[in-house]
Structure formats: C-alpha cells, structure tokens
Amino acid sequence: NAGVMQNPRHLVRRRGQEARLRCSPMKGHSHVYWYRQLPEEGLKFMVYLQKENIIDESGMPKERFSAEFPKEGPSILRIQQVVRGDSAAYFCASSLREAGGPDTQYFGPGTRLTVL
Amino acid sequence: LAKTTQPISMDSYEGQEVNITCSHNNIATNDYITWYQQFPSQGPRFIIQGYKTKVTNEVASLFIPADRKSSTLSLPRVSLSDTAVYYCLVGFTGGGNKLTFGTGTQLKVEL
Each residue of B26-48: pLDDT tens digit? Predict the structure, then answer.
C-alpha cells in the first residue's frame, strides 16, 4: 500500500515565478492537509481539503497561495509570485476520517521549495 | 487545540530505554494523543496513538495516566537510527483535525 506521495521533492524557483506542489493521498483517503515547515521549527497547518472542497484554509496566507483537491488527480498547492520567505518544506498529509475513530494523519516526504 | 509541553532535547545510549514525557493540561474529553517521529529532510512518521491507559505496538509504548494531563512515549532499547525529533500532539478526532506541532524533542542516541 503506497504511502502519501509528493512531487517534486525539490523545487527551485526565482522570485516572481509560480510554484506548484502536488500530493497524492494514500489509497482510500479522501482528506488532505498541507503544512509548512521552516528550518528548526515545527510544522504549521495551512489548509484542509476534501475532494472538490476546501474545508479549512485558516492557516494559509490570504494572497498568492491557493489549494485544490479535484475529483480526479492529486491535490495541488499553488504559490504565485514566490518570494524568498516562501522557501520552506511543504508537507502533505492524508487521513481516512472513519466515523468514531481517531483521525490519524499520514505524511508524505515533503517538497523542499527554494526561492532564489 | 490543547497545548503540549515536552523537553527540547534528550540524550541516550544505544540499548537503553528512553521515556519522553509530554504535558497537556488542557486536553479535551474527545482528544487523542498522537506521537510522530521526524528525521531530517523527511516527513513526520506516525509512531503511536492512544486515548487512555497504555498502548503498545511494535515500535513503542504510550502510557497515559487516568487524568490524561500528560503522556509518556517509551522507546525500548534505542539504537542510533532512533535519533530524530519526536512530536507529541493532542487533537479531536473529528471536524478537521488541524495538527499543531511544537518544536518537539530532539533525541540523540550515541554509542
């Protein structure tokens, strides 16, 4: 059973370009979370999505950042007009959300974004 | 979400048992306690999860006292490969479980 997959693993962009990060959840999981981790810090929640719906985007910057989880295909985190401060590791997690059980999240390997 | 407090770092030697305690005084009735392990340049890896008393799997044990205001992750006979950051998290099982990561505990295992 393949785990959460993310690509690319490393992404280099120049200031002003767009970054697209992809996440394929574990088989059978329909809930996706995105987190950002700066060096020497813990992960910070960004957005929670179900298929075709954004459920909670309270952790996502209001400008330049967007996320989607279409009916078919991976979840996409898009960062427009990147700035140096966007350099970080971006992790995706997925969960099953079974009724009555703990919502255990399983993480992907992350995408390391470097903005030059 | 309940705030957690855990030691910033711990040192151990190979073959020893390591216990990392986490305080979560404001844990809610519906909250579960979950521990993750993270190696450099990798995503957090789920270790163990529990609600009360004791939970054991092939990797670790989790001890939770009756008041649930703290929990202890126990790693038996650690090896060098257990050197990592360990995060303790508490959260509700439903309604969009936004995990709140602190700085975790950096465990360093030496020969």
Answer: 888 888 899 999 999 899 999 99
